[in-house]
Design a protein that fits this description.
Layout: H1 7-15, H2 20-39, H3 46-58, H4 67-74, H5 79-92, H6 104-111, H7 116-129, H8 132-146, H9 151-167, H10 172-182, H11 188-204, H12 206-212, H13 216-228, E1 236-237, E2 240-241, H14 243-257, H15 261-277, H16 283-298, H17 303-317, H18 322-335, H19 340-344, H20 347-352, H21 359-372, H22 378-391, H23 394-411, H24 415-429, H25 437-447, H26 452-465, H27 470-489, H28 502-514, H29 520-532, H30 541-550, H31 557-571, H32 577-580, H33 609-618, H34 624-633, E3 683-689, E4 692-700, E5 705-714, E6 720-728, E7 734-737, E8 753-760, E9 769-777, E10 780-788
Antiparallel strand pairs: 1-2, 3-4, 4-5, 5-8, 6-9, 7-8, 9-10
Helix pairs in contact: 1-2, 2-3, 3-5, 4-5, 5-7, 6-7, 7-9, 8-9, 8-10, 9-11, 10-11, 11-12, 11-14, 13-14, 13-15, 14-16, 15-16, 15-17, 16-17, 16-18, 17-18, 18-21, 21-23, 22-23, 22-24, 23-24, 25-27, 26-27, 27-28, 27-29, 28-29, 29-31, 30-31
Length: about 800
């Protein structure tokens, strides 16, 4: 291929290449010819060669050697060469390269050129790749062009001014007077550039925003003219007059009316007119309506106008276009907390979107459906959500199950309904629920004493139906161990009674213990349940003893430890087995969400001596032998108790236990520890923003080990979902993040989220941690970063 071939011939030769290697060969030969011609001083085909080089650049091949040629051609007096030179500068140069500074003077000269098309080339180039230094040098020239009489130049200058404001915020004040005057123009291109410039200025400066609020009547008049104007072939798009300018004006009105009642009142009538007169059958009309809805919902609009906006979004939900349905649900998600009743009217349409084939639409519909659940519709909404859970994609099951649990906990009409709903979720998607589901359900069952018989019968049936759902199997084993006597009685008023024998119950637990699908945690539940049944049945105690003894040599350390301890109960402490394995007490939660046995941050009240004496006299006398046996189980006692002293620990009685030398105590298996008073770990607030508070406390486990507890709470009026924490530490520090207690934060501090972070610092480096906080509030995703340089208590 000769060096003088035209651009079309080079393109044809490149496209006819059969392999990539052949294409590279063609381009390398042509680039070599272009380089050679660039070196010639008298070159008549400069623009021709640079055009070919730009095509090579578009294909992804290196073309940096043409940068200086662009600079030379920009300085040329010929328009044909200037045009290609400016195009090459926009493609081959950027603000990071020194060559871009060489064209500053050429651009300044061309901005004063008598030809408007040459001025346009300079304006487009500056708006595309102008650096901060170039913007500072040329800003006065742009302001001068904004005041010119040529509409073609003014619209280009307005867009160039937008780039300058984005690059150098301080130059915004320079363009304020000119931008205000541009609103009186009749040319739509100039108006469009003026609105974009004013929007940028208002977003950058609150003072400028206050000054431009006075232009709201002018913007309203421009918008009314567009809405009521007749057919204009220059601006009509699918029956809508200049929708691009309408969208830009609506966005600017949204900024000007935010948190300002006077500006909002001035635009209420206009927004109602646009919402009722715009055709919604075309995509163009839907774009204008969507911007109208966003403006109505963001300003201080009237209640009737907000209902009209929600109804427009409801019509969007019926659209066949999935993109329109998606943005409708995204907008409804943002306002469901403030306009809950208005969104409730479209509940049926939103629920129907759960059946959509698109995964993104399904996810939005699920989030919105969960937000619409209330005490009045809990039964109907939960029915739809459970149907969705049975057929939803795997990636949505965890989110759906978590949302159903939260809604059931908030609005459950009865305890039985609450238990049935959770069991239904565990049966359907047990493998996708969070770790705290099992203890939460156990607490609910424990506190509902009137449903113990009903629950144990239902879980026993579920255990035989499917043992692959591990959380369900764990709860079933726990209930069988606690309430196995109710199961064996076969008397249940709440449900149809099932005649179950002792062998049937033990067979079911053995199936769980031996199943390959059972996790070590599930086997631990089943082994404990089997042990507890030894005090609730009479004929199969020997069988239980043999089952427990088998796992005394289990490869799993946790199961082996349990089995050894249970064997010790059978052998040495059989007289205390019934007391140790009695039913669990009711698990209560205080206002801070702490369960029995957790330490409270508040100091314990000192007991009054008078009340202590009354409690002591109320306790029945117990034989000394039983007391000594109980203390022997807890570590051994060498001193006999004085008569009249109370067992169970009144505040005025101190028990001193010496370690036993026999070595057969249960606590000896765990190392023979002695109880020590626990002091609350010091807590420091590391993040507090937008109503979200994150506190940090730490506890030294060893010389190099540290456990950090992160606790998050929400004091706003709306729920927060998708709350996640990510942590980073120096490379020499080992970090392990445990699963969080939940993934959402209810409003008004309804519940807290806790997450443990285990750190190992073997090299004793200066410990620092960077935490990323991510969450979704009212449909908006928030991400923040916080650095922790010191840890409390260290």
């Amino acid at each position: 291929m000769s060096p003088s071939v035209p651009l079309q011939e080079m393109i044809r030769a490149i496209r006819s290449a059969r392999t990539q290697c052949e294409e590279r060969g063609v381009i390398q030969r042509e680039c070599a010819a272009i380089r050679a011609q660039f070196r010639q001083t008298d070159n008549g085909g400069r623009s021709h060669n640079l055009a070919k080089l730009l095509y090579v650049h578009m294909l992804g091949y290196p073309a940096h050697f043409g940068q200086m040629e662009c600079v030379r051609m920009i300085a040329s007096p010929r328009y044909s060469e200037k045009r290609v030179g400016y195009l090459g500068a926009m493609m081959l140069l950027d603000e990071k390269q020194d060559a871009s500074l060489l064209i500053t003077n050429s651009i300044k000269n061309d901005l004063s050129h008598s030809n408007q098309y040459v001025q346009s080339l300079a304006l487009c180039t500056l708006a595309c790749m102008g650096s901060a230094e170039m913007c500072r040098d040329l800003a006065p020239e742009i302001d001068r062009l904004l005041r010119s009489s040529n509409s073609y130049i003014k619209k280009k200058a307005a867009l160039c001014a937008v780039h300058i404001v984005r690059k150098v915020h301080d130059l915004g004040e320079l363009f304020v007077p000119s931008a205000r005057s541009l609103l009186s123009e009749k040319n739509h291109g100039v108006l469009h550039g003026a609105v974009v410039l004013i929007t940028e200025l208002c977003e950058r400066s609150p003072e400028t925003l206050e000054r431009f609020r006075k232009t709201v009547p002018d913007l309203v008049q421009i918008m009314k003219g567009l809405v009521i104007s007749g057919y204009s072939p220059d601006h009509d798009v699918a029956g809508v007059s200049d929708p691009f300018l309408q969208v830009r004006i609506l966005r600017l009105l949204r900024i000007l009316g935010r948190n300002n009642e006077a500006a909002s009142d001035a635009m209420n009538d206009l927004l109602a007119q646009v919402a009722t007169n715009t055709d919604s059958t075309k995509t163009v009309g839907n774009a204008v309506l969507y911007e109208t809805v966003l403006t109505v919902l963001d300003i201080k609009s009237e209640s009737g106008l907000r209902v009209l906006a929600v109804n427009i979004l409801g019509r969007f939900l019926l659209n066949n276009d999935r993109n329109i349905r998606y943005i409708a649900m995204t907008s409804l998600q943002k306002i469901v907390s403030t306009d809950h009743n208005a969104v409730q009217r479209h509940r049926g349409t939103i629920v129907d979107c759960l059946k959509d084939q698109d995964a993104s639409v399904k996810r939005r519909a699920l989030e919105l459906s969960l937000a619409l659940v209330s005490a009045s519709n809990i039964r109907s909404m939960m029915k739809e959500l459970l149907i969705f859970l049975s057929s939803c994609p795997p990636e949505l099951r965890a989110q759906a199950a978590s949302g159903i649990f939260n809604a059931a906990e908030r609005y459950a009409p009865s305890k039985r309904w609450h238990i049935d709903t959770i069991l239904h979720v565990l049966t359907t998607a047990g493998g996708d629920v969070r770790d705290e589901t099992v203890p939460n359900l156990i607490q609910l069952i424990t506190n509902t004493s009137e449903l113990h018989c009903y629950t144990v019968h239902k879980l026993y049936r579920a255990l035989f139906t499917d043992i692959s759902q591990q959380p369900l199997v764990q709860v079933a084993c726990w209930c069988i161990g606690e309430y196995g006597d109710l199961l064996l009685k076969g008397e249940c008023q709440e449900t149809e009674a099932v005649q179950v024998t002792e062998d049937d119950v033990l067979d079911a637990l053995e199936i769980v213990l031996q199943s390959h699908m059972s996790t070590p945690t599930t086997r631990g539940f089943a082994l404990t349940a089997t042990m507890k049944l030894s005090t609730r049945i009479t004929d199969n105690v020997d069988r239980i003893r043999s089952i427990v003894s088998i796992y005394g040599s289990c490869i799993d350390v946790e199961l082996q430890q349990r089995a050894v301890e249970y064997n010790a109960l059978f052998k040495k402490y059989d007289h205390m087995r019934a007391a140790v394995l009695e039913r669990m007490p009711v698990i209560q939660k205080n206002s801070l969400g702490q369960t029995n046995g957790e330490l409270s941050e508040e100091p314990m009240k000192e007991s009054q001596p008078g009340k202590v004496k009354q409690e002591e006299t109320a306790l029945p006398p117990q034989p000394a032998g039983q007391v000594v046996d109980l203390l022997d189980l807890l570590g051994g006692s060498q001193e006999p108790l004085q008569p009249g002293s109370s067992v169970g620990g009144s505040a005025s009685t101190q028990l001193t236990a010496a370690p036993s030398s026999a070595g057969g105590d249960l606590l000896d298996l765990l190392g023979g520890f002695e109880p020590t008073p626990l002091a609350p770990a010091p807590t420091v607030t590391v993040y507090e923003k937008n109503g979200v508070t994150l506190t940090l406390s730490c506890e030294q486990q060893s010389e190099s080990g540290l456990t950090v507890t992160l606790t998050a709470s929400n004091s706003t009026d709306s729920d927060i979902s998708g709350f996640t924490l990510q942590a980073a530490v120096p490379k020499s520090v080992q970090l392990q993040m445990r699963a969080p207690s939940r993934d959402s934060l209810p409003a008004h501090g309804g519940a807290k989220l806790t997450q443990l972070v285990v750190l190992n610092n073997p090299n004793k480096v200066n410990l620092k941690m960077r935490i990323r906080v991510s969450y979704t509030c009212q449909g908006s995703v928030v991400q923040d970063m916080v650095q922790v340089d010191s840890f409390p208590g260290l």
